[in-house]
Amino acid sequence: MKTLNLITLSLLTAGLTSPVFAQQTEVEQNDFYLGARLGVFSADSDRVAVKNGQVFSVKDGLETTTSGIEAGMMFTEAWEARIYYDYMDAELDGPGGGISGDSYGVDALYHFTNSFYAGVGVNNTEIGDVTDIAARLTLGHRNFINDNLAWRVEGGVQQGWEEDYTEMFANIGLQWFFGGRDTSPEPRTRPEPQPAPQPEPQPEPKQVDSDGDGVVDSKDQCANTPKNYSVDENGCILYENETITEELLVEFDLNSSNIRSGERSDIQDMAEFMKEHPQLDITIHGHTDSTGEAEYNQWLSERRAEAVANALVEKHGIARNRVDFKGHGESQPKVRENSAADRQDNRRIEATLKVVNRVPKTR
């Protein structure tokens, strides 16, 4: 019981002192860590153990202490995989006294933020030669003490598969991160040696710049250039590339390939842009949300793309050989679908045209 009180006190202390030991350090893809863990385990009231050939009930409540090791890797900035092993020290009802056990398993953890995560896993718990395999749910909080060392506190519940055991756990841990983290300090630049002072040059005779472009008449090969244009060393106008972009975004109702009346002005704007730039061709990309079968969504996305293509050709006079269309079904969502508004964003047509013009560079 004394050990249990120490562990409980440690858990409370970790939660209360988290602002003191917290550091704004982000986990990164391919981060790998090793850690030590210490915790408590609440056995199911029906769990039994075998000791000296006799069967005893394992005390329920937070009467079992655990200590162990763990290792994990961040496969993305949000998803983490972890394996662990815990040595268990349990108490038995009656004259059974104490008994040891083992617990090990694997977890898949998803990080909602840099600090909070949840996960699912598979666990094997053996106390007194009685083994049970369980599905485990975990909630946790992690903060960094420095760039490599982090502490964490977590708890959860596990449900047995072979036996109807429902059991809870809580633990704290320290984790040391290796590998993918870039914690090197910014390099310092050496001060450049100051050059020795040079004697001031004698002023050259003043030369005339008639057109005011910054190039004197004796070197100016393009006279009378406008003053607001940039020029090269010969006094001739400099040109730069100007990129003009026109984007088309058309949304559709659920299970429909009919173009809404409010979307037709965007199609007309794209048609005017194509008439101004006859060298450009267009490919229209149709998309759907994830509602329904994938084969049907592929067919529907092609119908939507074809409807917009026909509108450009038949209503706005764009040549048929300049317009192509493709359907992508539900394979390229614009947003992750969590609501009706998200699904609306994914029911869409997208097309982008760019043209590069050479224009005079202004000062």
> Which fold name corresponds to the CATH topology of the largest domain?
Porin
Beta strands, count: 14
The helix content, as a percent range, equals 10-25%
- CATH architecture verdict of the largest domain: Beta Barrel
Structural class: alpha+beta
Tally of discrete structural domains: 2
Helix-strand topology string: HHEEEEEEEEEEEHEHEHE
In spatial order, strands of the major sheet run 1-4-5-6-7-8-9-10
Contiguous helical run count? 5
Q: Average pLDDT across residues?
A: 82
Rounded radius of gyration (Å): 35 Å
Largest sheet, strands/sense/barrel: 8 strands, antiparallel, barrel
Folded structure, characterized:
This protein is an alpha+beta fold. It folds into two domains: 148 residues, Beta Barrel (Porin); 119 residues, 2-Layer Sandwich (60s Ribosomal Protein L30, Chain: A). The protein has five helices and 14 strands. The strands form three sheets. The chain has an eight-stranded antiparallel β-barrel with strand order 1-4-5-6-7-8-9-10. GO terms for molecular function: porin activity. This is OprF. It is a multi-pass membrane protein.
Quick overview of this protein structure:
With 363 residues, the protein is an alpha+beta fold. It folds into 2 domains: 31-178, Porin; 242-360, OmpA-like domain (60s Ribosomal Protein L30, Chain: A, 2-Layer Sandwich), CATH 3.30.1330.
